[in-house]
Each structure stands twice: as C-alpha cells, then as structure tokens.
Write a sequence for this structure.
C-alpha cells in the first residue's frame, strides 16, 4: 500500500491511497488514532495494517460498494510523507560505483574514499522536508553550486539494534524517494559534508511511502532524475555498493536505529558536478526524481 501525509482544509493528516491512486482515505476515518506518519509507523498493529489495505482496495474506482469515506487526491495537498523526521536522516555517500568515480573527478580531496571497503556515512539535518511541488531554495549569495541527487530512502518500522544482515528486511517499514540536494561549494569547503547538505529545504521527499510488502527485497527498482525534462540520472537500486541489509546491520551494531529512521542509500551517476563543465541547478529549474513503484517527486528551484 501507499501512505501519504497531506493537508485538507488546512488540517494535516495521514492517509492511505486507493489502488488507483485517485483517492485518499484519512486514517482517522478508519478509527485509527494516528495524527502523524511518525506515530503511525511506531504504533501500527497488524490488525490496523489490514484495515488500511482493505480501505485502499475498497476506495479504488473499480471497486464495488461504497467503501470508506475518501477524498479525491486532486482536492488535497500532498506533503512529504514524514515532514518532520524525529532525527537527522542517515545518508550514504559514494554508494554507486560510477557516481563515486564522477565525484572523484570533480574533487579527489573531497570525494575519494580513504578506505575503499568502508561505507561513507553522514547525516542530514531536516527541519521540514519539502513534499511534491515544494520549493528547493536557491540561496543565492550563499550557494553557487547547487546540485541534485535522487536516492532511495529506507524507512524503518521498528527499533533496530544489533541486527543480522539476513534479518534486516524485517525492520523495514517502507520506501520513499529523497532528493539529497547539495551545496557543493559548502560541501567541499568544509572537512565534513554536514553544512552543505543540511540547509533548510534541502531534503525533498515523497510523494508516498510504499510499504515494504509491495517491493521484493533487496529492491531492484529503476531510479532516475530529470532536470527540465532532460534525463540526467538513470540506474537501478540493486547497483548499491553497500546493500541495505549491510547498512542496517553495520549501523545497528553500535547504535539503536529507532522506528521512523530514514536512511538515504546513495545516488547514481549523473549529478550536476559530474558533467564537464558542471551543470548546476538554477532558479526556475524543475527537478523530477523518480523511483519505480514509488512515484515522481517534483520540485522547483526558487
């Protein structure tokens, strides 16, 4: 099933999309007590999950019967599925081979791994994540090398500590699309990447969370990014250097990954800094990040 956070009549709610994605049923209308996606992820029971699955089927246009109360998707504003993450997003850097190569070509000092066998982890602060049609701030005067990175984001459904790789899939609630927007001039000017990755508005997400039961593990999904309609990134998510099972297992050996944790798994080649000359984002650019079985995250630079 696909879950969204949305506003209707200025009220933020959580809902489940119908199978045809034309209607959304607010979870409160189904008797579920969850006000936010974070609450739902942490509290959802198996019985409640079945209620959501049934509502998604009943409210599709092809379904027979009246179904539950639902709203037209056109009547609501879809937000990021988790507008306010409980903690920083955990990110993987240089996790597709060809992207690692293009990054090293741009700046060996900033992007060449010191130890090739180890994953590169960093975190990304998110005050509010923009959703579909949200704005990516240009920060003119502060940022002069604005870049995009389409990524598959993994969302954990329960606390994970000292998880074995073979059990990692059991901890995944679902997946969404994330754009790891980056200020390359800030990222390369500092030893750590945190500042250049964490400006307000630099973590668009959405449009939905597709639950893990809808996607075979490990995910093999088409992943791509278009700038003003031009295809720039085009790969599949099974090309990760460090797989999702390895990521969850390694991180959880020494830290508890709480339910609702978002892990951005890295980006394929084709980012702006990979071109010669680099092709940075400019005000007015339309960025479309797409992952198969999840959807398109569209944002405008302003």
């Amino acid at each position: 099933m696909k879950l969204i956070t949305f506003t209707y009549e200025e009220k933020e709610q959580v809902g489940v999309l119908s199978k045809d994605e034309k209607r959304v049923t607010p979870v409160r209308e189904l008797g579920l007590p969850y006000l936010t996606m974070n609450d739902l992820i942490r509290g959802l029971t198996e019985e409640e999950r079945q209620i959501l699955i049934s509502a998604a089927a009943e409210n599709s246009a092809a379904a027979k019967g009246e179904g539950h109360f639902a709203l037209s998707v056109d009547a609501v504003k879809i937000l990021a599925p988790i507008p306010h993450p409980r903690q920083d997003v955990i990110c993987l850097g240089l996790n597709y081979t060809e992207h690692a190569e293009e990054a090293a070509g741009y700046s060996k000092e900033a992007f060449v791994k010191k130890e090739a066998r180890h994953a590169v982890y960093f975190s990304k602060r998110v005050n509010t994540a923009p959703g579909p049609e949200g704005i990516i701030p240009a920060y003119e005067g502060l940022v002069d090398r604005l870049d995009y990175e389409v990524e598959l984001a993994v969302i954990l459904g329960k606390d994970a500590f000292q998880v074995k790789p073979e059990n990692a899939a059991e901890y995944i609630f679902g997946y969404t699309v994330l754009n790891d927007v980056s200020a390359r001039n800030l990222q390369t000017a500092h030893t750590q990447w945190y500042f250049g990755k964490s400006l307000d508005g630099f973590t668009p997400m959405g449009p939905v969370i597709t639950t893990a039961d809808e996607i075979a593990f490990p995910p093999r999904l088409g992943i791509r990014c278009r700038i003003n309609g031009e295809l720039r990134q085009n790969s599949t998510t099974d090309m990760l250097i460090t797989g999702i099972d390895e990521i969850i297992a390694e991180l959880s050996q020494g830290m508890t990954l709480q339910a609702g944790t978002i892990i951005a798994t890295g980006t394929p080649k084709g980012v702006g800094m990979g071109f010669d000359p680099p092709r940075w984002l400019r005000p007015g650019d339309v960025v479309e990040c797409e992952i198969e079985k999840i959807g398109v995250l569209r944002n405008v630079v302003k």
